[in-house]
Specification:
By secondary structure, the protein is mainly beta. It contains two helices and ten strands; from the N terminus they run H-E-E-E-E-E-E-H-E-E-E-E. The chain has an eight-stranded antiparallel barrel.
Length: about 180
């Protein structure tokens, strides 16, 4: 059973994107914030993954949204009617549903919340579905969905705009104590 079938069927209806005019572009930090594995109708949550990666979002000459991560570029195409065109079952999981995304956006209607997607060949997973939706002016949420065998794996991602100077010390490193005079 493909729980997100409707979501991906709409990727074929992709139209050009005009992201540079209204949406944040530039550098983002990305983290896998939720997810689940579904086998035989039973969902199990994915383990917590606190690793972050750097992502750059830009608008291509053709008007598509271009996601660059680890040196790879992924072109995402606008999904006609945005969030309103997407359906998925987030029940029995901590994955955001469409009502959650609308509430987190600054927009009034699901039709007004843009969405982008693409089918992508992913190492060790085969063809995956990648969907991206804005949450506010400096954040996106995304879903990476794969179907290995009779299993569905959904990973929810958060994209947060990078603020401040890029030369800050790594917060995970313990600072040296100040010298004693």
């Amino acid at each position: 059973m493909r729980i997100l079938l409707h979501l991906f069927a709409l990727l074929a209806l992709a139209a050009p994107l005009q992201a540079g005019d209204v949406l944040p572009l530039g550098k983002f930090k990305i983290i896998n914030s939720a997810g689940f594995v579904e086998r035989s109708g039973i969902r199990e949550p994915l383990g917590v993954d606190l690793q972050t990666a750097d992502v750059t979002l830009s608008s291509s000459e053709a008007g598509s949204l271009l996601l660059t991560i680890n040196g790879s570029e992924i072109v995402l195409y606008e999904i006609e009617n945005g969030l309103a065109a997407l359906t998925w079952n987030s029940g029995n999981s901590s994955v955001l549903g469409s009502a959650d995304i609308l509430d987190l956006s600054t927009l009034e209607s699901a039709r007004d919340v843009p969405a982008w997607g693409a089918n992508v060949d992913w190492p060790k997973l085969g063809t995956v579905h990648l969907v991206l939706l804005p949450l506010r002016q400096n954040a996106y949420t995304g879903f990476l969905i794969s179907h290995p065998g009779q299993t569905t794996v959904v990973r929810q991602m958060e994209f947060r705009k990078v603020f401040g100077p890029m030369n800050r010390p790594d917060p995970r490193l313990k600072p040296s104590p100040p010298p004693l005079n």
